[in-house]
Amino acid sequence: MSATDKAKNKADDLKGKAQEKLGKLTGDEDREQSGKARQAKNDVKDAGEKVKDAFRDK
Questions:
Q1: In which element (H, E) is residue 38 found?
Q2: In angstroms, what CA-CA distances link 21 with 11, 17, 18, 24, 44?
Q3: In angstroms, how far is CA 16 from the centroid of its own chain?
């Protein structure tokens, strides 16, 4: 995974965490769930990049 991809994924993950916390603080369940979904999507992207890296290294 390139450094640019890592930075983008980390930024998106942080946005998701912030969105989730804001939803919790304001009682907005939709925003909270949206933040959790963004984090889950980022986890899938990270896993895919790790698989690509593993095959690239062999």
A1: helix 29-57
A2: 15, 6, 5, 5, 21
A3: 7
Answer whether 50's CB lies under 8 Å from 27's CB: no
Tell me the whole-structure pTM to 2 decimals: 0.80
Burial of 16 (0-12, 13-18, 19+ CB in 10 A): buried
Task: Report how far residue 33's alpha carbon sits from residue 25's, in angstroms, rounded to the nearest whole number.
Answer: 13
Report mean pLDDT in 10-residue bins for the chain, 58 residues. 81 94 96 96 88 80
> What single DSSP character describes residue 27?
T
Token digits of residue 10:
């980390």
